[in-house]
Amino acid sequence: MTDGLRVQIDGPVATLTLDRPESLNALTVPVKVALREALESIASDRAVRAVIITGAGRAFCAGQDLAERESPDAAPLDVEVRERYNPIIRAIRSMGQPVIAAVNGVAAGAGASLAFACDLRIAAEEARFVLAFGRIGLVPDSGATWFLPRLVGPAKAAELALVGDPLDAAEALRLGLVSKVVPGDRLLDEARAMAGRLAEGAPLALALTKEALQRSSTIDLDEALEGEAKLQGIAGASADHAEGLAAFKEKRPPRFSGT
Ligand code: T3D
Asked: Whole-prediction pTM value?
């Protein structure tokens, strides 16, 4: 436990729990630093094969801690975004392991952005997403303007970002923003089950798949086809590919090593 963040490693699955329930897990400087450090440390830990991010109590995360902003020592907003928020988003996107947001309650402001940046989202029935930035005269940050149009389409993204009405879990499921909606008391079990399935996959292939999906947003079809060929060359030369083929022939589950 470090300053509002719990890090728990159970075999191949790391669970990061934002843990300041009294302020709906709002993000302070120590939490942001701890979250970034935890993600960077997990990224280089080959034993961890899937990551879950969730929140303690009734919220996932209410974004920037607005009380902290009143401190005379608070950094200018552009500096805070550049130096504290953006590295968290980059860490999630650049790590090879898949990251699941287990959205247990309200995800507001940069808390919503954090969920959008993850590879997969599972929501509790009581979860909701609020692009709360506009209500306090700010613009969506931490990747929200990049992720949201890609996740839900430009028209819905514009509505959510400009009007700012909450998006409930059922609507998030209908839009494809979340993969699954489950009762709150089942959320962590569901997230762990999904993380467990991911952890059984071939780590190199998963990391390369994540890379290809991410690049697809900014390249044309020809570049995507060539990129896939390159990545397939890497995956095809891996011990995990040989193991996958052997397991198929021997009609047994594969045991991937990540090499
Ligand atoms: O550095 C920078 O500033 C730049 C980066 C910005 C990134 C951002 O994230 S900007 C957006 C910041 N977040 C918000 O504006 C959200 C503010 N919160 C809300 O709008 C609402 O609390 C929610 C919609 C999230 C939930 O509403 P509700 O009715 O379920 O709960 P509540 O009663 O409003 O909040 C419960 C408690 O949490 C309350 O404290 P109290 O009165 O019981 O002592 C409330 O003050 C506290 N809380 C909620 N959000 C924050 C917070 N405390 C600090 N910071 C918060 N963001």
From this structure: 0.97
